[in-house]
Amino acid sequence: MIDRRMVLAGGLAWASVGRALAIERVLDVAYVNANAWTGDPRQPHTDAIGLVGDRIVAIGAGAVKAAIGRTTKVVDLEGAFVTPGFIDNHTHFMIGSAALMQPDLLSATTIPDFAARLGAAARARPGKWILGGSWDEQRLGGQLPTRAWIDAATGDTPVAIPRTDLHMYLLNSAALKIAGITRDTPDVAGGVIVRDAKGEPTGILKDNAKTLAERVFPVPTLTEWQAIMRGGITHALSRGFTQVHTPEPFDWTTYETARQLRAKGETDLRFYCFVPIRDWEKMAAIVKAEGRGDDWVRWGAVKALADGSLGSRTAVFRVSYSDAHDQHGVRVTSLADLKAYIGGADEAGLHVTTHAIGDLANDDVLDLYAEIVRENGVRDRRFRIEHAQHLSQAAIARFARQQVIASVQPFHAIDDGRWAVERIGQARLRGTYAFRSLIDSGATVTFGSDWPVGPLDAVEGIYAAVTRETIDGKNPAGWLPDQKTTVDQALTAYTVNNAYAGFQDGKLGRIAPGYLADLTMLDTNLLTTPAERMNTSKVTRTLVGGKERFQA
Asked: Which residue, 22, 17, 26, is CA-closest to 74?
């Protein structure tokens, strides 16, 4: 139990390192000889952290030492770098977790190698769907793959594997047959069935056309889903994450599975679950009947889709694609439906976020948000835009002015930076992955991975934001280097700002008395490590709710 006097003194006493701590009981755990970045501007660094139960109750060597008793477990961190627990603003958690058990396709660099890896997976489980292991045509020569690449290797085993951005599937002929997709199948609104010169499906389905395949996918049992999630939790903890946000636009699987695990006890990793905005009335009814969950599993948030992705040429731009002059992108959701969904969800008090990649899509969403604020009234709603990837200069300023959170993913910048100029040309790069411009404008910027689109790895994300060096190593000075962030800004985006973006400021995101004891410990001080070596840093311990959930 935390003493009331300690809580009231929080803003005053803790700035004084060494001041005695007024608590009713001695510390349960004392972490000493730390090198901690707190995320708290009142005391940015500390060398000791004291815990009682699941809370931080003391920081600083003097205060911690004064509260150590005979039963206190004292842990000497030997100078380890400590941060508030990393939070990921954007994961497709169940897809990523399931992909941990699927073949590695991203590291394939030739078509024969790509096909051989799928062939090995098919032979290992003949006839069983292969649904994971994402691909990137840029690593395979630049051309979109077709079923002809993989049919011979996979035979009668159905394959439906996502592009790394999750906006396309590649199906083999066996999967197309099961899904009933032929030359006569019409395109789906907001999606594309890619066809060859003879009108036959090539195996590529874009955006909403993916539903044609998804309707025939095998559905795991509840027990299987729980096991899949457990595997993902273990993976996330090993990367220093203490919470993930899960903005899912199509299904409720993460929400349902996380709630099932919570019913069995602590989930080890915290979840903030978003569900498809088209189901906002269902979620509003759940919130009214049951509340919004607890600090382990929370809900009450919804996700909309404005457009597709840059890699699929379905992100919506004002000017056509530089390498496809007949294409402007695909509105995955019509503007009329977006307005109705967002307006209804917001009026019901739900937390709304919207995926927007292209410059026109981002402008559309900012316009809709402004209109809905005028209609529904001013309140603390924390609208978000997921990705905010390609922005006009006018849009950059609007995020701060409208108090819209830019929920971005730094790894995408060093991935797309290899080829983005081919898609949109040099001029439009000025507002592309504009992290520093958004921060300098006063906008709240949060960081994440979009896992499995990017690696579930905050260290890699910080490296990407700070160096902007593309993954092919061809931009050692950084791609669009004026958009580099500082390490402090990147850490803030993964901790303080992500807590704010999930309505948990005041309890998470900082190392401060009264906050939940979520901590990430690394073997390297990210603030002093040379930037080019930063991504070699390893997580050594992850604490969630005061318990060590991972130790290297």
From this structure: 26
Average pLDDT over every residue of 236-240:
98
What is the Cα–Cα distance from 87 to 495, expressed in whole angstroms? 6
CA angle, 50 then 525 then 472, to 5°: 140
Q: What are the residues whose beta carbons fall under 8 Å from the beta carbon of 407, sequence distance 6 or more?
A: 89, 90, 247, 353, 384, 385, 386, 387, 388, 446, 448, 501
Question: What size, in residues, is the chain?
Answer: 552
Whether the model pTM is above 0.85: yes
Phi, psi of 438 (to 5 degrees): -65, -45
The amino acid present at 199, given as its one-letter code, is G
Q: How far apart are CA 475 and CA 416, in angstroms?
A: 12
CA contacts within 13 A on the Cβ side of 511? 31
What number is the average pLDDT over the span 456-485? 97
Handedness of CA 450, 492, 305, 196 (dihedral sign): negative
H or E, element range at 65: helix 61-66
What local confidence, expressed as pLDDT, does residue 247 receive? 98
What band does 14 get if pLDDT is binned at 50, 70 and 90?
very low
